[in-house]
Amino acid sequence: MEELMNRLSHAAEMEGAVAQAVLDSGLRLLVYPLAQGRLAALGWPAASGRQVQGETLLRRRSADLARYGDWLPALFNDGGWYVVRRLAVDGNGGTLDEAALAAAMELLQ
Fold first, then answer.
1. Residue 95, Cβ neighbours under 10 Å: how many?
2. Which domain, by its residues, includes 71?
3. How far is Cα 94 from Cα 12, in angstroms, rounded to an integer?
4. What is the distance between the alpha carbons of residues 74 and 51, in angstroms, rounded to a whole number?
5. Local structure of 34: helix, strand or coil
6. How many domains does the chain have?
7. Helix (H, G, I), strand (E, B) or coil at 49
8. What's the pLDDT tens digit per position in 23-66?
9. Class of residue 107 by CB neighbours under 10 A (exposed 0-12, middle 13-18, buried 19+)
């Protein structure tokens, strides 16, 4: 995951636009550059056919903010559901570790 995040981050910064990849699970990973850090989003586009229950996602997140609080739910214009997280550029906050990725996937179930 770290290698993929590095590639997407580099592409996003070079283009000044969103870089994306589709994971083996079918989830889409988006990375967007910011002046200080970047945003990472993980989710299901509407075209994937996956149905995410927004109310369930919000309840799950609020029930365990220690685990899920860094991920912010977002409903995109196309009807796709994503969870978005700000990543720092310095230290260990610049990528998604396995625990963070697992938490995001749990929210989107």
1. 19
2. 1-108
3. 14
4. 14
5. coil
6. 1
7. coil
8. 998 999 999 999 888 999 999 998 888 889 999 999 999 999 99
9. buried
